[in-house]
Amino acid sequence: MAPRAPELPPEVPPQPGGWMPWPRRNQLRASDQDREQAVTELAEHHTQGRISSDELSERTSLAYQARTNGDLSQLMADLPGQARGPIVAWEALRSLRKAGPFPGLGYAGFWPRAGGLFIDVTLLGVVTQGLRGLANQNTPATVLLGILPLAYFVALWASTGQTLGMWLAGVRVVRQEDGGRLGLRRSLVRLVGYLVNTATCFAGFAWAGVDRRKQGWHDKMAGSYVVRRLR
Question: Which of 164, 171, 172, 222 has the alpha carbon at shortest distance from 193?
Fold first, then answer.
């Protein structure tokens, strides 16, 4: 008679909303819903004082990069399985917006961005108007008139992350993966996004006012964030 195989202990089902280390659950690929749930729980812990704003920002960034549920569980390992007490969704969203994508940086709001762009457009308009008077008599002035907007936005985004208007508004454009400089290629794509936004009656610019990460269509095309320093 063949020996009887040992019985395996019954698998404990995962609790709703928790990130306890169940082996089979941890090996599963994390879905977008899993990541959003983890981020929401982190925001709840932040509002209850368990983690700082910098910790929330760092863990939120890691949560969106997580590949498996095990990666998400590691982010919650030193926290209770579920935050205690009620919390409204608006408070969680406010915590995320305040924390921003990287430690010490928050997402720049719509109005500072709009103010910075208004300053840039006004500045370019004044300079362009002055060059038009020379364009008919000076070939270099004509060439400069054509490439000025391209050189202004692309060169400054790629090198410093700030135009003059953005500097005055206290904001900066960075890569969304690591907060580094945008670089030439992405800056060009971002400028093309400006043209798309203009062609759609500025809907792409307005999108930054409702997007959770304050990205306009040009930011989504280029993979960029506009950020501000948290005080």
Answer: 222
Tokens encoding 46: 């932040």
- What is the domain partition of the chain in residue ranges? 23-99, 107-229
Q: Look at the block and give the residue holding tokens 């270099």.
A: 140
Enter the tokens of residue 131: 């060059």
In Å, what is the CA distance from 195 to each residue of 105, 178, 204, 220?
Answer: 28, 26, 10, 14
Report the alpha-carbon distance of residue 120 to residue 22 in Å, rounded.
54
Question: 172-175 and 105-107: which strand pairing?
Answer: unpaired
What pLDDT is stored for residue 5 in this prediction?
A: 43
DSSP 3-state of 48: coil
What DSSP character marks residue 208? G
Handedness of CA 206, 207, 210, 213 (dihedral sign): negative
pLDDT tens digits, one per residue of 197-209: 999 999 999 999 9
Q: ∠117-143-200 over CA atoms, to 5°?
A: 40
Mean predicted confidence (pLDDT) in 70-84: 73
- 8 A C-beta contact, residue 221 and residue 194: no
Report the alpha-carbon distance of residue 205 to residue 209 in Å, rounded.
8
Looking up tokens 């599963």 gives 28
C-alpha to C-alpha distance for 186 and 171, rounded to whole angstroms: 18
Q: Is residue 145 pLDDT above 70, yes or no?
A: no
Q: Are 165 and 117 in contact (CB under 8 A)?
A: yes
Which of 147, 145, 125, 126 is CA-nearest to residue 135? 145
